[in-house]
Design brief:
The chain is mostly helical. 85% of the residues lie in helices and 0% in strands. The protein has one domain. The radius of gyration is 16 Å and the shape is globular. The termini are far apart.
Length: 123
């Protein structure tokens, strides 16, 4: 039950921060979802750092990993919103934004996970 509460609280905090970031960064003129992109990229870097720390020297407890990685990062990042935003690009015929957003999200997201784990290793 404690683990569920940790994931629940972490997820709520992450989701709230993602909502605020989207409200602040999304461009209504261009329709570009900068907030979702930023939360997914930052969340990828954070999960790389968190899991890198957990693997490196076991400084994070299982409960800390559940709260931070599963809860916070799980709530902060969002695949469903990313998928919906791409649907909107396709429906409006904006194939260039669809392609750039999709490719950049995957490439930069993966790179941030690896960067986070690498930073933990070298620092």
């Amino acid at each position: 039950m404690k683990q569920l509460a940790l994931v629940f609280i972490g997820g709520g905090l992450g989701s709230t921060l993602r909502y605020g970031l989207s409200k602040y960064l999304d461009s209504f003129e261009t329709g570009i979802p900068y907030g979702t992109f930023a939360s997914n990229i930052l969340g990828s870097l954070l999960i790389g750092i968190i899991l890198g720390l957990a693997l490196k020297n076991e400084t994070l407890s299982q409960n800390a990993v559940l709260f931070l990685a599963t809860g916070f990062c799980g709530g902060f990042t969002t695949f469903s919103t990313f998928a919906y935003e791409n649907h909107v690009f396709l429906k409006s015929g904006d194939f260039m934004s669809f392609a750039l957003y999709t490719i950049a999200s995957f490439v930069v997201g993966f790179a941030m996970v690896f960067l986070g784990m690498w930073l933990v290793k070298v620092l």
